[in-house]
Amino acid sequence: MLRIAQGRVYDPANGIDGEVRDVCLDGGKVVEEVPSDARRLDARGMVVMPGGVDIHSHIAGPAVNAARKLAPEEHRADVVDRTAVTRSGTGGTVPSTFATGYRYALLGYTTVVDAATPPLAARHALAELRDTPIVDAAFLVLMGNNLSLFELIREAAPDSTGRVAEAVAWWLEATGGYGVKLVNPGGVEMWKHGNRNVTSLDDEVEGLGVTPRRVLSTIATAVDELGLPHPVHVHCNNLGVAGNWRTTMDTLDTLEGRRAHLAHLQFHAYGGSPGKRPRSRAPELAEHLDTHPEHSADVGQVMFGPATTMTADAPVSALLRDITGGKWVNADVEAETGCGIVPFAYQERNYVHALQWGIGLELFLLSRDPWRVVLSTDHPNGASFLSYPRLIRLLMDREFRNEEIARANKKAIGRTVLRDNLAREYTLGEIAIVTRAGPARLLGLAHKGHLGVGADADVTVYSENADREEMFSRPRYVIKGGELIVEDGELRAAPAGDLLRVSIDFDQEIERTLEPLFEERYSVQFSNYPVREPWLLEPARRVRARRGGSER
Amino acid sequence: MADRAATCAGCGCGCDDIEVAVGAEALERVTGTCPLGDAWFAERTADPPPAARVDGREVDVAEAVDVAAAILSEARFPLVCGLTATDCEGQRAAVALAEAIGAVIDPVGPTDAGAAAAAAQAFGLSTATFGDVRDRAEVAVAWRADPATTHPRLLPRLRLDRAGRAAGAHPARTLVVIDAERTETAEEADVFIALPPERDFEALWALRALVRDIPIDRDPTAGLPLDAFGELAGRLRACSYGAMLYGSGLAATADGYVNVLGLLALVRDLAVTAHVVALPLRGDGNARGAEDVLAWQTGYPSAVSFARGHPRAQPGEFSAVDVLERGDADAALIVGFDALGQLPPRAADHVRRIPTIVVGPGATETAAVARVAFGTAASGVYREATVHRMDGVPVPLQAPLTSSRAGDRDVLAAIAARIAGEEGS
Hints:
The complex is a heterodimer. Chain A is an alpha/beta fold. Chain A has 19 helices and 26 strands. In chain A, the strands form 6 sheets. In chain A, strands 1, 2, 3, 4, 5, 21, 22, 23 and 24 form a 9-stranded mixed sheet that branches. Chain A has an 8-stranded parallel sheet with strand order 6-9-10-11-12-13-16-20. In chain A, helix 6 (164-175) packs across helix 8, helix 10 runs parallel beside helix 12 and helix 13 (388-396) crosses helix 14. By secondary structure, chain B is an alpha/beta fold. Chain B folds into 2 domains: 48-112 and 285-424, Rossmann fold (3-Layer(aba) Sandwich); 115-280, 3-Layer(aba) Sandwich (Dimethylsulfoxide Reductase, domain 2). Helices cover 40% and strands 20% of the residues of chain B. Chain B has 19 helices and 20 strands. Chain B has a 9-stranded mixed sheet with strand order 5-4-18-17-16-6-7-14-15. The chains are: A alpha/beta, B alpha/beta.
């Protein structure tokens, strides 16, 4: 039992915006009251928020691990010592598993979604998550280049999802996944056809009888039919290409009336023409989101400094490889997806990098509904999650932002609305929305991202500090599941987090359809594909899908 | 007697289509295996060594755990090695224990390909899982690799044997073998290119030039089959999808590191025009898992020292063989590895001089002379577990039989718990 006493509470999901009050915790949950002799944390003069929720990050699985192997020099420079309560590890842009859990917790984050797990590697991702302490974690399953799903999509009658919804449900159950991710639908498959790609939603995926549009539309509809807590999570086609905002708009128009979340929107908001200098089209995309409540996005902010680009969108990595000339990993995952990795550094003097940085800020500053345009750096693609405090300062502190703008490539800034000395400063309440309440709501995690009675007792307490970067870098207290984890920047305990996975009723007969498709396409046995091992799947918390609109 | 599905981890292929007939506390029949797989199942079901021995004397597991914990706690330079034949669960426990005692930990097995991993770490690589190679590759090159012998089911599984090529998605697909002499794999190939031993680096560099249309100075390439290479370069450039298979024949030599760099550089050059992937062949059943588990827990795939309370990696300095050959280690925990039979002589000699703890299911020479030896329940027969195939795909190992014995992971965790308890008291 714990009473967090007299802090200034920001709990936007419950309409609380800086009210001084107590937050009471018992049995891992927020409760109405605890006895007066319960342990008390004096939070006077401090800011109290729900634990942070990262809607889009890359923290576990074969791609992340391949990136770790590529970066010994980063690890050497950034070590994490073993203590009485923690394992050791290494940091850099792609930290080891233990370090990842600790550092998220030290930042006040208690829930993290890994946004790209190849289903064939689910066991690997799950094993890494078991070694990622403290945070509750979920993962999204890559389905945008899945040959068996392509077959079912092709067979489905127009305007029908056929067997696709059952298959999607089966895949989520087979892997322990939480939601559905589409990455460059069709394009990653084409990458395996002599390094090609798709460039529009109507390009045929060679020999497979589907187009990106058909894949997007069918799977988005299937996700809605299944009533998954999180809508389809889309990494659009043409990432990083000048002029790609048209593809992004086309994607949004295709998904009109259906729920959809666009990943790292900044990377998809470029005007201009392919091969030429990109321009910003952030205002148009922000405008679309304002008028389409069924759609949401995370920003995918770029921050100047080192990053590691890591994506299932393997053709994009080949472009980056040709820019850096440095290390490059490509890893084709049979019948499902691909993977590309290129260590990268964003430089403020570079036109393109400064434009990317500016576009991210534009998306934050122009969007009127923070509930649907939420914070991410697409860790570690745009920057490490460790740069969130600096990003928060950019949003909250206009003077600081203008100093930073003055340092960035002037031509690039001149192409954005940032040149207009935007007045907007995010409030603490808005920060609480884009870093916890909003992501939790978009994920359909009813127990996360707020401090109402019955919510998970995940709470972060910050000391007030006019320097918002400083303030958000070092929470005074972090409580996870009711347990005090962080005190003054030190880890006091490091319990395991839970796996968050979805639970769906579906027709098991779908296995009869899938088994023959598997035998043609996979090098593992169908019977060995679903994860059943309790040490990988337990403990887990299930979030029920509301199929056909029925309540849980 | 019932037939049950099983997975073989006798090499890095991780064949998960094996069937076993289960009789009274024994496997009556194993089907679908190759000779390596037969040997793997036979070893794991043979009369097991005692569950625990100290100085050759059978003892309770708890007593052996006490002795092992004492040895490791007192050691100033403990080494944890082996690991490539145990499961990922055992590897996770081994890294945790190594960290707790400030040890050096390094995967080492009979067909170690450390140079291949180090080159990939320095340069990156383009690779693929088996299914994409099987279904997409129009050209496959086995470079000083003889999978027909070292991984007997690999060629059929990738449909790269003669029958498989004829039946595959690309009936015109080609298998090219480059080696010193005609191997069993060469017998399956369309093209065999004879390459004298120790000329791999020059050959790979010449191929890079041919692929990029860079004129070759003929002198340094004297004796290389340039005409055949010219044809191969053309084939690789023209294909839509190609695969290069290589393993210890290329990597486990004095020039192994630069050889593998050369091959990876060639694959990268080819990536400009064709989709070509490299498939490193791994001999040990879970060598890839050892590399993966170490990387996710520490950031490094091999040769890690916890002596300073955090991971540091330095191949050479902290490689198991070097640590033993220099005589640095004053105690060794050897997991699933017959060190005496398979390490180089000087390293093996040092293993004989220091107190050793052996954990594993088999009756090995190393276990017979160890201070402490645990005979564990073999995963894949008695314990469920996970291994990573050499292409990185995790596959489950089943447990068709039951055993009251502890698995590798349990013994390692028990030793770690015993040490933690002592520290606490």
